[in-house]
Amino acid sequence: MTTAAATTDVLREQARAVVTRRQDEVLALSHQLHADPELAYEEHRSARRIADLAEAAGFDVTRGVCDLPTAFTATAGSGELVIGICAEYDALPDIGHACGHNVNGAASVAAALALAPLADELGITVKLLGTPAEEFGGGKVDMLRGGAFDDVAAAMMVHAAPQDSVGMSSLAISSWKVGYTGRAAHAAAMPERGVNAADAMMIAQVAIAAYRQQMRPGAVVSGVVTSGGEAANVIPARTAADYDCRAVTSEELAELQARVRACFEAGALATGAELALETVGNDYADLRQDLAIGRSYLSAARALGRDVLAADPALRGGSTDMGNVSHVVPTIHPMIGYDCGDTIMHNPEFTRFGTTPQADRAVLDGGLAMAWTALDLATDPAHRQGLLARLAARGPYRD
């Protein structure tokens, strides 16, 4: 065994010892987050639990960063190589942690705790970023704009899933609230006096359906009408809908948005109704995972006995604001799996598997695999210098 390999093995075992020693409080955190779900930008108790734990462990904690009350940073060490570990903790309306963010957040805490005692020896700064509002709004995008990632040379997190994988991408997405305002009238006595907002919405939906044949592969437009009128004998004066546009890349998303917007404008033009189209939250970029960091994670996770799929980068699933981070910072976003029966994420059944022994193992293994990945980045001279060079070249983030 070479000296470098022996040193790496010693560091790995030191990180493992920290996770083992602190596993009870890390798993208690996961269970607390699961039992007390909070929605996007409202995760006050969740953010406080994580920040308090980090502060008690000796991290330098700054709360309410980037003008977000439920965002924070917690740092340990003072090395030039800053490793960013993103903690998510928001839940879904009505179905709680059906996306497993209690597992995500606790695993990131485990990774940060494991690395903190080694930070000075490794010449790194461990930066735990409390990132709110992944499910809706895009807290990481807000934090990018606010400069929270400006010093980060590599970013990582793991995400709960039915199985382990590393390397897959995700779709870019934008969300809209769409509304039409027309004029009410009696549907039988004087329909000619009305401007039918429901017809405007119907025409837009038909136009979108016709456009689907020409959409680029991978593009998805989905929506639901939330208000379509009050009575059958009244020409509807107002209609409203929520719509999502998804595409393979951010560039293709911009093209899709322009065409779908034109479909909604067609509804207004055809009926005389007035269109209001509002962007909801931040647009999410496609996820571009760093292949070299991904290989380190894959090796680490397999060394822990996990059955990890090396996914095709062309394989895409869902959307995440970690995609925006990945366009700026070398990033990985592996999936950490545990048994959840036949259910899938964003399903209320998935929620109930979030505190099982397998989910708890995912928390600890995910945290340790990230810590071991960070060790590789810090101790491999070529990888370390490459990350620092990329950091210096990019400068502060500008939207």
UniProtKB/TrEMBL annotation:
SUPFAM superfamilies: Bacterial exopeptidase dimerisation domain, Zn-dependent exopeptidases. It holds the Pfam family Peptidase_M20. InterPro entries: Amidohydrolase (IPR017439), Bact_exopeptidase_dim_dom (IPR036264), Peptidase_M20 (IPR002933), Peptidase_M20/M20A_hydrolases (IPR052030), Peptidase_M20_dimer (IPR011650), Xaa-Arg_dipeptidase (IPR017144). It comes from the Bacteria. Residues 174-267 form the Peptidase M20 dimerisation domain. Belongs to the peptidase M20A family. NCBIfam families: amidohydrolases (TIGR01891). This is Peptidase M20 domain-containing protein 2.
